[in-house]
Design goal:
Blueprint: H1 4-13, H2 24-32, E1 41-46, H3 51-64, E2 69-72, E3 84-86, E4 89-90, H4 93-112, H5 120-134, E5 139-143, E6 160-163, H6 178-185, E7 195-197, H7 204-214, E8 218-220, E9 225-233, E10 236-243, E11 247-254, H8 260-276, H9 284-293, E12 301-303, E13 308-311, H10 317-330, E14 337-340, H11 348-355, E15 361-364, H12 375-380, E16 386-389, H13 393-404, E17 409-413, H14 416-433
Parallel strand pairs: 1-5, 1-6, 2-5, 6-7, 7-8, 13-17, 14-15, 14-17, 15-16
Antiparallel strand pairs: 2-3, 3-4, 9-10, 10-11, 12-13
């Protein structure tokens, strides 16, 4: 019987294969496993930003509708078990190890018949699909890992497809232009399956053409449905949704802050309402209950204290722009002390120039990843009142807190690999001093 540590060692051994887009390996692997992904209904979510939050919202809505629902997301913040959950409960380490062990058995069969070894993400995806089948979920909300068209999750035939938005990310793997990135995102569109999106006018024709080709109904935020914020009350954002097809939902408290979550909430509501046409358990009340209870750590997550700390996984210029907007709205007259760490394959210059203001102070460290950019190289690209680089995340947190003082604001951003570890340290630090 494989242990959890042995499962992690096996997954680490697959890193040598890197990222290899394509569906041949995952399709054959799932065939050998009996196609577990076909034993439950799915919702597929892609997009440059917001896909994780939207996935979590949909899973929460299904759960509050009395539906046994799985959720598959990536990457994790601290532990691989965060990627696979059922009804808000992460998979247990022992169950994770069993799912990886089962998947490895079929990987060995695939290799024995002359096939290529799957990548780490393909093995994780197959293991998640297998776990959901054995756990007898009714629905699973599946977040795309990279792009869409050639992503290993794109073997499912969902009930609804969601494309949150499209910006320049992973362009080197998705054709090199914004329109080619949009084509990859639109690759999750399937024949006759409704599509919900909030993409910009610049790339909408790409998504529209793909939907027309597939005979898929397309619902666009701002045209077919709308959503607006009515402010914040009791640390929840109040929104009201409206569509010609389904009428009004709300005012609804949403348990995630930030202006970008208004759009994400709208997408989740519209997708849920489309599901409700064939799923009577999904109601306006259950949608509101789901949005009121959803949790998605590390996305404009406010940790009260002295100083107040904001954690956000802004890891591209578009995400940095949204984070800066939300910081300016929430703390309009305060400078921010940033703790940032960025991966070397990201648009570092675009992120820091969008996020940092000249009057901010910045501490740069290294995310917990082999792909981390050197802090000194990131620091050289930052124009701000105060910039320094530190060796460890622990030192970075301590220095940012010192610079902010008890009445200041600290914002941790730049990579999910940074915020996951930082979040763990910050919460443990609070427990120590409480």
């Amino acid at each position: 019987m494989m242990t959890y540590d042995e499962a992690l060692t096996y997954l680490d051994s697959l890193n040598k294969f890197g990222i290899r887009l394509g569906l041949e390996r995952i399709k054959r692997l799932l065939e050998l496993m009996g196609n577990p992904e076909r034993s439950y209904k799915t919702i597929h979510v892609t997009g440059t930003n917001g896909k994780g939050s939207t996935t979590a919202m949909l899973a929460a809505i299904l759960h509050r509708s009395g539906i046994r629902a799985g959720m598959y997301t990536s990457p994790h913040l601290i532990d691989y078990t965060e990627r696979i959950c059922i009804n808000t409960e992460d998979i247990r380490q022992a169950a994770f190890a069993r799912a990886i062990e089962t998947t490895r058995y079929f990987v060995d069969q695939l290799i024995a018949e002359g096939g290529e070894s799957p990548t780490q993400f393909e093995v994780l995806t197959a293991a998640a699909f297998h776990y959901f089948a054995t756990a007898e979920v009714e629905y699973a909300v599946i977040e795309v890992g990279l792009g869409g068209l050639l992503d290993s999750t794109n073997v499912i035939i969902p009930e609804v497809a969601v494309i949150t938005n499209v910006a320049m990310e992973h362009a080197d793997r998705c054709g090199g232009t914004l329109l080619s990135v949009a084509e990859h995102k639109a690759g999750i569109i399937k024949p006759k399956i409704p599509v919900v999106t909030a993409v910009s006018p610049e790339v909408f024709p790409v998504v529209e053409a793909k939907a027309d080709q597939a005979g898929a109904s397309l619902f666009l935020l701002g045209r077919d449905f709308t959503c607006h914020s009515d402010g914040v009350a009791d640390h929840q954002q109040i929104i009201t949704f409206q569509s010609a097809l389904f009428g009004q939902v709300g005012p609804t408290p949403v348990n995630l802050l930030g202006s970008h979550q208004v759009s994400n909430s709208a997408l989740a509501i519209m997708a849920a309402l489309l599901l409700s046409r064939n799923e009577a358990r999904i109601t306006h009340a259950s949608i509101q209950a789901g949005l009121g209870s959803v949790v998605w750590p590390g996305r404009f997550e406010v940790i009260p204290g002295k100083p107040l700390i904001v954690i956000d996984g802004a890891h591209n210029p578009a995400g940095a722009e949204v984070l800066r907007l939300n910081l300016d709205r929430a703390f309009p007259e305060q400078s921010i002390v940033f703790l940032i760490g960025i991966l070397q394959d990201k648009d570092i210059g675009g992120i820091v120039s969008t996020l940092i203001r000249p009057y901010d102070r910045v501490v740069v460290t290294s995310p917990d990843s082999d792909r981390a950019a050197q802090p000194e190289l990131v620091a050289d690209l930052i124009e701000a009142e105060y910039v320094e680089s530190v060796a460890t995340i622990e030192d970075g947190i301590a220095q940012a807190i010192r610079l902010a003082g008890p009445d200041g604001i600290v914002c941790v951003a730049g990579s999910l690999y940074l915020i996951g570890y930082a979040r763990h340290i910050i919460y443990n630090r609070q427990k120590k001093y409480c």
